């Protein structure tokens, strides 16, 4: 037993978090910033945060993650980090030559109250920002929200680059939220099939899935460009996928640039993908081609073919709110039972939404925002489940309690593939189902007695 | 193999110039002092390197922070202490199981290593102070687990808002009576790298843990192994060898270690220091307070292991131990030699670069030598000058503002427990015979003349070095891994070993030879270009056209 000290008896904890189901804001901001073309993320604080965020992103994406830091020492922590940041901006543009520097704060610089805009203006005045180059900034204090909040804050900073010209350009903005690079590519593919001209931001496809060629490009070709972000104010609409990750930016574009926004769930699973496709075609005023309907039909086909294996299975899931909401809905649509749903990200709305989705279902859901994986594990000890869905850290529970485990979410440190095979859209739904089925069937093959060990499905 | 080797032969001076070329003048001046061409000869004095100085803002560094050095490195691998991080969630999350310190939960079964504990500070805690929350969290941890010890770690914001974590710890310790609670002021911004955190951790471990256990553990030839963190099971292999030799390891600081090990360290008769950078402080303090001498050892490399075992045996000077050690070496070496002979046919003459930590970049030199490989460039992420140039420079080290921030504790001889393990005459006799106590020559003497030694290497320089010198293998950490590999050069993580190891001791050497052979001779590196990319100007036609 690896988590041998986890007791079955549940006691309320007020101050101690054990095995968190969230992490801190800057890592989300860093990931989002990598989805801008030619962008070097910069962490304004002491270098340890930056090292940790880079390491974790590297371990998840198995790709180089470059980011600079203001490298605060005691002096900067007392007197403010302005000098460090101005110097950093100069060094970064001289040595790495990015098009954009996306600065985010850390707990330290937030606590001392550094003002990013003011520091950027100073750097500008001192000529440290070369002609045609951009510096953006997002406040990301980690004692508020979670990594998801940090992602959202950086995406909002991206939206704030919008410079509406007053003329609509016929494009639709899609803000995909914190999904994998392959998911971003999949969203673009679906929009392409439907024939909608979109601006996707952030867009880490083409950035965090670089080929091995013997050359290293610090700034690969992918990512949304600054001109595209500037033009986002001229779009005919914005689709924000995920309330937590994407809505802030979309609402800002709506109120400041008159780009009407629709906040949708992330398109995981059948119904959420349906809504995404439907809203996209409505906003763009186009019709959906048969090719998309075929993909949808294939997913429905697999659901019906394999329904007996999904039916009634109890599931524990943890992770980020936007992802969990869609996943909960998807599981219910398969007649599975997401009985434990936990996110570390705060937000009462989350609990309400999950309860709403589970209403009238033949099971009782235990849901918690600001929860942790210790909660999940304790509940499991009291009443077990058939499947775990969550990030890598779930492997300890999976082993201790001998429960099949689907790695999904962030971070996945010990498996490959999540960066290449999308789980959004209809095709993504197929992949999720295939993975879940394989887990169940492998378990069955392992556990069945010889007499009932079977060849065919 | 398709990999193109360098055509031009660069001199070390060319390379240094190339590395500095793109920097703004101020940055270039600073970096110039941290990039050293190793030219120590008997005639000329060794050149100096500037180390343990601030990282330059905006230059992508490999370094981490003080908290990482304290919680991650020193305290992380201790299984039966609840390591509670006081701060917002991230700091605790990232240090959660990410260093591959392996652990055996032992017969008592206590093991908190797979857990991550945090006070998860919120904005109200930052505004109004987090002491109350910390107190409550300690109480909850105690109620849930009743551990032997609870260690509290401060993160950046905690230092700024001025929470007195030591007072809280003291109060809770008094309240519990049966649980040792102590705290580390290891805010990330202190010092210039992880190194400061090692120092802070050592001070507190020494103050709050060492000496707590009065009963001497049984066994002959008692030693402490300092600065060995059981990454990938290194410590397990070293312990296997110790056991075979009849050497009793009282305490490993800190790999697969336990509360009792720390608490009993004063009962050892010799301290053996592996990672000089991270732990020489404890070695010195053990000597001053209890009279335990220390020696530098290295268990990375088969020859190095044999040498270190002999050194330990020589210290005790007991024929029984000396013979046993020789017997063990004789028994272990044939397999090692068989593999190295085989591997050498494929690795001989190949080149390596190593930029890790504060000792590893030195320790692994021996292993590479055993394979006939040459380290053409190396350096530390957070070493000090003594790790490069040897301990003799310690008296000349400048104490700057950043080092002054780190608490120095004064240790004096313990009135009751101070007990010099050897008489001055015995020490002298050993020294006259060439035995070295408290001695470390550093990395430089083991590097070739003209090789390039770089302190606090950064991503830009790493890439340039690889482009210019095309090493056969590059060793560093996870952040560097994929940018180096994209250049078509295999990269081995020497902090976490990817998922390999152990690499210490005899069995570890065998593992390492095989691993490096696999990496430098892998076919993968010949796949970089598609056939049509090798000669893109081809215009011939196929016959059927
Ligand atoms: S929680 Fe704050 S101090 Fe810790 S790693 Fe995250 S940003 Fe840095
Ligand atoms: S070898 Fe390096 S990484 Fe390990 S403890 Fe020593 S200084 Fe740290």
From TrEMBL, chain A:
Catalytic activity of the protein: N2 + 8 reduced [2Fe-2S]-[ferredoxin] + 16 ATP + 16 H2O = H2 + 8 oxidized [2Fe-2S]-[ferredoxin] + 2 NH4(+) + 16 ADP + 16 phosphate + 6 H(+)
Q: What's the name of the protein?
A: Nitrogenase molybdenum-iron protein beta chain
Signal peptide stretch? none
Family from the record: Belongs to the NifD/NifK/NifE/NifN family.
This protein's superkingdom?
Answer: Bacteria
At the highest ranks, the source species' classification is:
Bacteria, Pseudomonadati, Thermodesulfobacteriota, Desulfovibrionia, Desulfovibrionales
Keyword Ubl conjugation among record annotations = no
Question: What EC number(s) has UniProt assigned to this enzyme?
Answer: 1.18.6.1
Subunit composition? Tetramer of two alpha and two beta chains. Forms complex with the iron protein (nitrogenase component 2).
EC category: oxidoreductase
Where does the Nitrogenase/oxidoreductase component domain lie?
A: 24-439
The protein's gene is named nifK
Name the PROSITE patterns for this protein: NITROGENASE_1_1 (PS00699)
TrEMBL record, chain B:
Complexes and interactors: Tetramer of two alpha and two beta chains. Forms complex with the iron protein (nitrogenase component 2).
Q: Report the family membership.
A: Belongs to the NifD/NifK/NifE/NifN family.
Q: Which Gene3D superfamilies match?
A: Nitrogenase MoFe cofactor biosynthesis protein NifE, C-terminal (3.40.50.12380), Nitrogenase molybdenum iron protein domain (3.40.50.1980)
Q: Which cofactor does it need?
A: [8Fe-7S] cluster; [7Fe-Mo-9S-C-homocitryl] cluster
* Catalysed reactions, as listed in the record: N2 + 8 reduced [2Fe-2S]-[ferredoxin] + 16 ATP + 16 H2O = H2 + 8 oxidized [2Fe-2S]-[ferredoxin] + 2 NH4(+) + 16 ADP + 16 phosphate + 6 H(+)
**What's its job?**
This molybdenum-iron protein is part of the nitrogenase complex that catalyzes the key enzymatic reactions in nitrogen fixation.
Q: Which organism is it from?
A: Pseudodesulfovibrio sediminis
Keyword Ligase applies: no
- Which keywords belong to this entry? ATP-binding, Iron, Iron-sulfur, Metal-binding, Molybdenum, Nitrogen fixation, Nucleotide-binding, Oxidoreductase
Protein name (Swiss-Prot/TrEMBL): Nitrogenase protein alpha chain
Q: Which SUPFAM superfamilies match?
A: Helical backbone' metal receptor
Iron keyword on record: yes
Q: Where is the Nitrogenase/oxidoreductase component domain?
A: 65-520
Underlying gene = nifD
Q: Which PROSITE patterns match?
A: NITROGENASE_1_1, NITROGENASE_1_2
Q: Might you give the EC number(s) for this enzyme?
A: 1.18.6.1
